[in-house]
Amino acid sequence: MSTPIVVQYKINAPAEKVWRALTDQDEMKSWYFNISDFEPEVGKVFNFYEPGEAKKYHHQCEILEIIPSQILKYTWAYPDFSPLKTVVTWELFSEQNGTVVTLVHDGIDNFKDLGEGFSRESFTEGWNVIIGESLKGFLEN
């Protein structure tokens, strides 16, 4: 069992507002990825590419669990590179004057043979930028 990546930030916004940013296609475009086929429903599959024109990394995910304003959990895979999957879980905890956002990315070692772009360090850095800069900046401004 590999150790999951855990990234946590406090965001000065209510959990409902954070949840909307995580599950609304229009809001997601502003800070995360442009995911045109995202539907916040268990069993739904969604696809997206990294920003830019390269379209090198096809991401495919399937929603596993939803508890509104608390938990969003989905698989995370790169079907063009590997049949293996990982699991991303967003957990929201209301705290005075804000929300603690915890992201757990489990099974990351499934991608260890795919190259440096799929390393634990690369994912850790990416999630820190996505949550600590993009999401936080989007919700606190």
Describe what you observe in this structure.
This protein is α+β, with helices and mostly antiparallel strands. Helix content is 26%, strand content 35%. The chain contains three helices and six strands; from the N terminus they run βααβββββα. The protein has helices at residues 15-23, 25-31, 120-140; strands spanning 5-11, 45-49, 58-67, 71-77, 85-95, 98-106. Strands 1-6-5-4-3-2 form a six-stranded antiparallel β-sheet, with helices on one face. It is globular, with a radius of gyration of 14 Å. The N and C termini lie far apart (39 Å). The mean pLDDT is 95.
Features:
35% strand, 141 residues, 3 helices, globular, 6 strands, six-stranded antiparallel beta sheet, alpha+beta
Main sheet: strands, sense, barrel: 6 strands, antiparallel
Task: For the record, give the distance between the C-alpha atoms at the N and C termini, rounded to a whole number.
Answer: 39 Å
Task: Give unreliable regions as ranges.
Answer: none
> What proportion of the residues is helical, as a percent range?
25-40%
